Structures are given as C-alpha cells and as structure tokens.
Fold this sequence. Notes:
The complex is a heterotrimer.
Chain A: H1 14-24, H2 36-47, H3 52-62, H4 66-75, E1 87-92, H5 95-99, H6 102-113, E2 126-131, E3 143-145, E4 150-152, H7 157-173
Parallel strand pairs in A: 1-2
Antiparallel strand pairs in A: 1-3, 3-4
Helix pairs in contact in A: 1-2, 2-3, 3-4
Chain B: H1 18-23, H2 28-36, H3 39-49, H4 61-66, E1 77-82, H5 91-98, H6 100-114, E2 118-123, H7 128-143, E3 159-164, H8 174-181, E4 205-209, H9 210-222, H10 224-229, E5 231-232, E6 235-236, E7 238-245, E8 251-256, H11 261-266, E9 280-284, E10 292-294, H12 295-299, H13 311-314, H14 318-321, E11 329-334, H15 339-353, H16 359-376, H17 384-395, H18 403-427, H19 429-434
Helix pairs in contact in B: 2-6, 2-9, 3-6, 5-6, 6-9, 15-16, 15-18, 16-17, 16-18, 17-18
Chain C: H1 3-7, E1 13-17, E2 20-24, H2 30-37, E3 63-68, E4 81-82, E5 92-95, H3 100-115, H4 131-139, E6 156-157, E7 162-164, H5 174-181, E8 189-191, E9 198-200, H6 214-218, E10 224-226, E11 239-244, E12 253-259, E13 262-268, H7 282-287, E14 295-299, H8 307-310, H9 320-324, H10 326-331, H11 333-341
Helix pairs in contact in C: 3-4
Amino acid sequence: MLKVEETQSVEFSTELVNKFAEIVSRYPEGKEKSALLPILHEVQAVNGWLSSVAMDKVAAYLNIAPIEVYEVASFYSMYFLRPQGKFVLEVCRTGPCCLVGAEKIIDYIGEKLGVKEGEVTADGLFSYRGVECLAACGFAPVLQIGPEYTFYENLTTNSVDQLISDLKDKASKS
Amino acid sequence: MGRKLLLEHINVPGINTLEVYRKTGGYRAVEKAIKTMSTDEVVEEVKKSGLRGRGGAGFPTGMKWSFLAKPEGVARYLVCNADESEPGTFKDRYLMTNIPHALIEGMIVSSYALGANTSYIYVRGEMMPQIRILEKAIAEAKAAGFLGKNILGSGYDLELYVQPGGGAYICGEETALLESLEGKRGNPRIKPPFPAIAGLYGCPTVVNNVESIAAVVPIINDGGEEYAKIGIGRSTGTKLISASGNINKPGVYEIELGVSVEDFIYSEEYCGGIANGKRLKAVVAGGSSVPILPANLILNLVNGDKRLMSYESLSEGGFTTGTMLGSGGFVVLDEDQCIVRNTWNFSRFYHHESCGQCSPCREGTGWMEKVLHRLENGHGKMSDMDLLVDVSKKIEGNTICPLGDAAAWPVASAIRHFRDEFEWHVRNPTLAVKENFGLAHYADPLPELVS
Amino acid sequence: MNILNFLKLSEKVKVTIDGMPVEVEPGTSILNAARQIGGDIVPPAMCYYSKLEGSGGKCRTCLVKVSKGSEKDPRPMPKLVASCRTNVMDGMEVQNITSPEVVEARRGIVEMLLINHPLDCPVCDQAGECHLQDLAYEHGAEATRYEFDRRTFDRIDIGDKIQLHMTRCILCYRCVFVADQITENRVHGILGRGDHAEISTYIEKAIDNDFSGNVIDVCPVGALTDKTFRFKNRVWFTKPVEAHRDCPTCSGKTTLWYKGEEVLRVTARKDEFGEVEEFICNTCRFDKKETKDWVIEGPKKVSRQSVINSNHYDQLQPAQVVKKNLELMEANKEQFERATKF
Lengths: 174, 451, 342
C-alpha cells in the first residue's frame, strides 16, 4: 500500500507525448501496452520518480487500468515509487564487484553523504543504494546514475570524491 | 593467438559507426543472405555450424530456429535477449557498446531466416547508453537500406526496435522477457506452449542471446562448416568470456572453445594470472548460477587431464566434480576470498531477483539467504549446512523457470566443495567475522584415481 | 467407468495415474484426469481453479511424475510437472502418491508455503475450511525448520465487506483472475516482487462491484475473508444449508451457514474439490441474511472427513480405492499410521 505523501502535479509536455506516440508506434495495433516500460522510463526521467498521479496518467494514455501500471512499476527495480535525490548513486553490490571492494565503496559513499541507503541528503541532491549486478564485472566496482544511466567504473574512494564534487558543481550550475 | 570472429576489429577506431564497420567487411552477411540464399539455406548453415545458445543454456541455435511454427498469415518474431544480468557476465554490454552493428547485422540475417518482419532487441533498462548506441546504429543501417521496406531490393521488409527493460534479472528468462516486452510483470510463463509455438503476442517467436545472433554473421560469411571447424567436439566456434574477480586483466575475451582453463587464467593473452601475486582459490566458470569449483577441480579433471573451456569439459564429472560453461561469466576468487560470504552474496541476489510467482523459489531463496547470512555473521549452526542442501534440493527442479535451479546450484556446490570452510565459520564465529579461512587445501593436487 | 465412456473410446486418450487407468478427452490436464478417477490420487491444488482461465502452475503442490510420456514417445519427463498445467497424452503414465519423489517434493512445497505463514488458525475465520490447513495436515511436517522472523504485512480493508489479511496469502493469484474475468474492472493486483509481493490496490481503494465477493470464496487461505462474518463463529459450529433465490444478477444458488436460527454468512456452493459451482453476486452474499430471503433446499452434504461435519476431527476414512490397491496401501502407509493415532 502506498506510504508516500503525494503532492506532485504531473503534466506531460507535448514533447513527451510525442515521444510516447513514437514509442507506441513500435508495436502492432492493439499491443500498445508494450509501450508501458519505455514510457515509464521517460516519465521518470522527467519527474525523478513515479507518483501514483503520474502512473494514473500513463494508464489513461495507454487505456489500461491503473493497477496494471502499479503492478509493473512495483515489479521492476529501476522505477522509483518515492521521491529520490537529484542524483541516485546506484552501486553494484553483487559477487564479482564485492571481490574487488564494492562493499567498502558503498560504505564510503554512505559516510561521505552522511545518509543511510535510500535516504535523500538534506540538500536534496543525493541518494544512494546498492543494486544487483550491473553487468560490468570486469570494470568493478561500478556505479550508475540515472536517468542517462552513465557508468562510473573501477571506483576508488578518490574517484568517488571526485564524482560527488563534480555532481555538486553540475547541480549548482543548472 | 586464437581466431577472433566477433571481436576481430574491436580496436579499429570508429568501428561503432556503419562506415568503418562496412570497411572491415560489415554487412556482407546481409547481402549474401538476402540476395543469394533462401531462408532455409540460412537456417541450414546455422545448423551446420553447431552454434549453441550463448546465453547460458547452450541449446543448438539452428535446432531452436527449426522448431519455429510457421502458420499461414500469422506474424513471426525474433527477439534478441540483451537482458544481460547474470552476475559475472558482461560480454553483451561490451559487444553492443563497441560493435553495435555486429548485433544489428546478425538481427537482419536471423530475422530474414525466420521470416520475421518486426524484431525487437530487449536490452536491460540499466544499459540506457547501449540502448542509445543501438538506436543510432539502427538509424544508420536504415539509412543505408539494410533495414526498412524492400531491403536491398529483395522485397524483404524488416523493422527493428530496441526495447528497454525495467530492472529485473528474471527477464533474461525467455518467457519472462516476452511478458515484459508485452508491458507486463516479468513472470515466466508456464511451458508448454514454448515461444516457438506461442511467444510474443501469442505468435511464434524465437528468443536468442546477443552473442548467438552476432555469431550468425561469421557463420553466413564463411559458411557453417568453416565455423564448426573452430572449437572442440560439440563446442564449436568462438565464445566471448567475461573474466572478472581477482585477476590481472579482467575483461571480455574471445576464445576458441577448447582452450585450457589453466591457459585462460594464467596466460598473458587472457586473464594474465591472479592479481597481486595471490593464489587461485576457486572459480565460478559460467556466471553465478553454475556450481563453484575449487582451484584443483577447475584446472583439472578427476582423471588428471586438463580441464578445457568447452561445454563438455567444464561439465565433465556432472555436478559432483564439474560445472557448466553457462553464459561464460568467469569469476575468479583468490585465496583471500571467503566462500561463505560469496555464497551469501549470490544467494541474496537470487532472493532479490525471484519473481515471487511460484512458492519454492519465492520462499526458498529468502530462507537460504537468511541461513547463509547467519553463517557468515557468526551465528551459524553445524546443522545449517545440511539444512541448506535440503532446502536447495526442495527448490531445484520444482519451479516454473530455471531461476530456482540457478539459486540452488551455487549454494549446494559451495557446501559440496567447501564444507570445511562453512564448518570453520560455525566453530570459530568471532574469528570468522574478522578473518578468512584462506586457501586451505583447495589448490592441492587431486588424489590419484583408484581403478 | 461406465459403459458409455467405453463406447466413446475412439476419441479419448488413455492415461494411467498411480496404476489406475482412465479415458479422458484430449486436452485434459493430468489433474482433471485424476479428479475423474477421484480419491486419494487427486493431487492437491492451491492455485489452480478450473473456473478461472490461466490459473494454476504457481503453487507447485500438484507436482507429479510422468514416468511415461505417451505411447508414441515413452520417455519419462525429466522433471516433476505441475499436473494442473500439463495435458495428458495417449498412453501417458503418471505417478502421484506412488512416487516417493513426488511425496518428498510436495512435503517440501508445503514447508515453503508455511515458513512465512502466521499459523494463526486459532483466530482465523478460514480455519476449518482452509485448504492450506488440509494440505499441511496431510503432507506437512510436525515442526518447522524455519527460525527467522516471519514476513508480515499490515492488515487492510479493501471495501467494507472484504478483509485482506496479506500475511496469510500464498499468492495463488486466484483473486486477481476473479477480478479480471468475473468483475468489470480490476482495482487490485500483485504489487512488488519476490517474497515481498503482495495483493494490494496500491492507493487506498475499495474493491467494489457486484461480483467482488467471489474473491473470498476462491481464496484458498484466510487472506480474503468476509467482514460480515468476521469473528462471528467457527465454521464447524455453523450448519450449511443449500438454498436459492430468484436473483436478477446471479444464479442465486448458495449455501447458507446457520447458527441456530440465524444466517451468519452466505457463500457460493462448493464442489468436492472446494471450487465454487457458480459464482454469486454481492447482494446474495452480503445483503440477504434472513431465512425469508431464501428457498431452502436442504442440508449441504459435507464429507465425513470434514471438521464441519462432526465438530471434531474424525477418523480418516481411506477411500475405497485405497483398500483394494496394495501399492497404494504401501504408498499411503504414513497416512494410515497417522489415521490410527487419532
């Protein structure tokens, strides 16, 4: 059951709706539901997470029941059902990464940001979480940052420091 | 140096573009197949090549294609499985990032062979950069007339789309992938019917791994028989191996099947030996799902012969002393690694990724993770090992899809080969939290066989 | 087997289950073929529901061994198969309770289903007609090997008539199929993944339409219960009576559960496998609780084994077929021994 206070108002821009239409055109007629996963990615990229309001609007667009969207969004690990930091650092925590120190990197990021996994920093910029295998085991430890899902490989505590300060710069400029 | 078929031109600058890819001989297979071969001839070449599915199961690709039902007036689909999520495996990401056209070309030839007019590449959602790369490559191929209507004037039409996943390992299972592609939860379907009869949108569908599809290109260029000459026995051709863990040179290597495991780990051509001058303790040879083997069993067979990187040699000895080639995710553990911790980590992965549809996997994976967590953190009991083996047996073979087996095998094999390390954890709870068991006897020569 | 069935032999396929042959229509599942034979060889089914399309295959309690695939291809199937979703082939041979492998696997499944179940039967309205209770009684172990905290969920109301107690759920998906196939729109579904998956509406919403009450009848456990009957009585103290009324929405054929003069609850009529014969509407179920609303047909036939029959656990009466078959006697040894204990 939903445990988030929702105040988000969601409007899909024309650009976004055009994108939806392009996505829907990839599938045979009557199979528009196939567009659900890509559309949810698009919506999350714009809004940062998926509120029930946003999901209801997606349901209306695809002409499916809202529960069908909730079911899908809650199944996949990439969709956020609660607000996140502007940058979500998703660090791989699976076996091969841990062989070369991923656990230490995760702990270090937690210390550095001063928040627990899943929490958002006071400035609203960062949250982090351990995720399962990102298929980059040869470049471990790795983390990714959405919505572009840029990869940062062969992490060290130094490169994490650099990354966080770069992101802060990026945020202050935008 | 072994022959390279997929990664031959990996270091050519600009190989990710259509222009350079064509200069290195790219899209010859499309021209050859569509202009000079019938669809059956393409399927026949793939059958002759002996190519086996590179996603993990190792099922002959040509045979899979020949099962595809072809009812009149019903669309057929080819779906590429690029939901690469098996821990230890990152070859598909590597291939798609660097030579996207190898996959696109393979998709065109394979779609032609199967009579598909719309094909999808299902890429895991986390690989957004690769999705963009593939979309760009598709646009290039389309502009060059290799995709779209009337390809190369042959009358054959093909549209190719990239579909992002949403973050779920289970979608690498082909029917879960199809469910996901239909915009649903990634719950594997109950089989039969198999996708070859009723797959995407209920239509006949073939689902193939990225590497399998890319391998179709050299098979068509050089002929299936040529391809089958590479490799050893029923393990034909080349295979991309993702090497990771405690080695000097982690990365993706294309090997001719049949290289010895020892050469693969220690030679400069491949992994370059164990990192930091340490000794080898164990290897997970084919992605996290396959049984883990101690150093002495991965390097040699029980009869003393060298173990080779091939489907047959890796599985020699069954699960008693062998493992599997799987997806080629080769994870190397050095003497400082803790088997219990590694097993718990993998177990957590399967617990996290279980879809929750069928009861043995939904409940059993969590149970195993909890017991392993207890063992790793010094609260284990001597009876836990038997409990784990028993729970793994209750899951194995009793689930809808192979995730249950994949969750059971690493646990059962770790206890089978490293039981004393587990027992050491129970006997020395405080010490085990601080220190590791070390190499112990896991690299000792195998005892002579008594005939 | 009556003579008529033999006359139609040409079209039918022959399958043998635990040594007992039966001829069934092509396309019949092993489970349904076993139900045609009846007795102890019928595999238990926690998720399959013959009236709900697409159901089955998930709980794995109905696993059986196919020791011979068919006359044409006699190879055995490599793994145990879900009998509810595997169709018979001509000449197929199936082992259920005669296969130690199946019995062992089933014991494992029951254990899995119970490790996170609250075992709160003493306060559960489903007790006495709970399929999980029956299953555990027949196939389960006496003690659990699970030593961790059990998974819990908050109890939620989905509408004023239906209580969802997710902690007890075994994720059979039946209620989802009911909402999809019998009601006009589905507002609840499976949220989350793995062992955190739950039945929910996500945002608080009442499940409200004429046939929503049927989710209570199809629920094999006490996850979905009738709020109008909540804590009113134990089912074995109530008397089931078959009745009907002229209902504009449904067939109106129901079972009334009496305590003294009072109708405590109304359910659909269920067959010997616990499946409803015909789905009923919410008006019949929730709003017609007076004897005058109904035409009484007579007491419902309750099997001798049922706790509802006699207010106490009766001695297990092995079915006729068991007594005649030595192999089955051997296979059921444990059950016989347990029966004599009581």
